[in-house]
UniProtKB/TrEMBL annotation:
Keywords: ATP-binding, Glutamine amidotransferase, GMP biosynthesis, Ligase, Nucleotide-binding, Purine biosynthesis
UniProt-listed Enzyme Commission number(s): 6.3.5.2
The name this protein goes by in its record: GMP synthase [glutamine-hydrolyzing]
An annotated GO cellular component: cytosol
Stated role: Catalyzes the synthesis of GMP from XMP.
Domain GMPS ATP-PPase positions: 195-387
Residue sites binding ATP per the record: S222, G223, G224, V225, D226, S227, S228
Amino acid sequence: RLLIIDFGSQVTQLIARRLRELNVYCEIHPYQGITMDFVRAMAPRAIIFSGGPDSVTREGSPRAPQEIFDLGVPILGICYGQQVMMEQLGGKVVSGDGTAEFGRAYVTPEGRLDLLAGWFDEGREQVWMSHGDHVSQIAPGFAVYGTSPNAPFAITADPARHFYAVQFHPEVHHTPNGRKLYENFVRLAGFSGDWTMGAYRDEAVANIRKQIGDKRVICALSGGVDSSVAAALIHEAVGDQLTCVFVDHGLLRQGEADEVVGMFRDHMNLQVIHAQEQDLFLDALEGVSDPETKRKTIGRLFIDVFQKYADQIDGAEFLAQGTLYPDVIESVSFSGGPSVTIKSHHNVGGLPEKMGLKLVEPLRELFKDEVRDLGRELGLPAHFIGRHPFPGPGLAIRCPGEITRDKLDILRKADAVYIDQIRKHGLYDEIWQAFVAILPVRTVGVMGDGRTYDYACALRAVTSVDGMTADYYPFSHEFLGETATRIINEVKGINRVTYDVTSKPPGTIEWE
Ligand code: XMP
């Protein structure tokens, strides 16, 4: 195993992710808890020092235990981690002399280093820098293997001891060849690279058992990938100590409630309470057309309903959530920031405190695609895992203007035809998210020999990596024409179909 000592960088989890991609097992531990006893007990085969926000020139700033350097295991220091290594091994670090570097930089090689096999084939490498301090004198035994205009010690190493220290962040996307560097490091440390998602699952199950003991857990199952995988994993760990609540707010897609409840209850044997609260939500939404009022109404009722059902479960002490790593960093780095609320997102974030529950978040370290891998590993069907995201407020935000039961019925039918078209044409997996929005206008049409006066709808399909930015999907005219014809023929109540070609920004993915 590999130990990552976390000095507080925003991207420490990305290091873990790069290592998992290389099938190497690693654990991240905050520097505060790292004692030599801990390290000896863990017996890591290699250690990585992460970056961090502090300055090693500040008195009392984080360090590693000095004896860690005598263990004889390879160590890679990144950014702050590099400076800690230099400082603790006898080099010097200075701050604030105008050589801070943030963003893209180019490193050119000096000499040859095994860690850099496959680097510099094109002469120089793009890297991502993010540092205020820099090393001014390297530690004894170290030599320089790469420089950038503002970092004369961008890459340093003591190859005999397998100590490597880099100023930049090889784990981020903007260091395009960074993966190679990690690959070389773990190869030099002697890892065979045979760790798998199956092993992750076993670890996670053991940790959940330890955390929960013989207590009860409840989970708000939405049918989305994250809560589904979290529920399946926790069920594997503690079986019937887990009860899921699936809240049906009447704003789900066609067949969705049956599909989700059927799969978890009948196929996977989870205890699932199907909360049928359609009337409660739809009555409260009657006459509401303001998007934020819709979102807030649904969010508030969701919490009430969840609490009502949870109260029926005796002795629940834990609340399970499918929080992913990107959610964790976003909430940390943006909390308290001056950002404007574009949309009030629907989540159960406030629940645990309100209900006095402790959180279980077994997916906190994972990224979306890793969650999908884990889901496959847990035996969730591929079509389920590959489903497009679906927002908590459901069809309410795809029905601009007033929501009526009639409109929702029409919308559900049109959406089903559209998704069927996308699947039939083999496009589903190329698209991040696709749906129909029913518009609050009626238009005149002619069908057969008669006049129609029905709703117009908009088709939406976008590509995206993370939902933060998006582009509309370039369907062929044939596809769009065929889909429009099918919707108008098969869905009574719609006589006009449009295609939304707005990217995000300036648009958002959902209509409200
Ligand atoms: P927007 O519309 O903001 O959506 O571009 C970005 C992504 O987030 C989803 N979304 C939500 N998901 N609760 C959720 O769980 C919400 O309140 C919510 N609003 C939007 C949206 O479907 C898209 O994937």
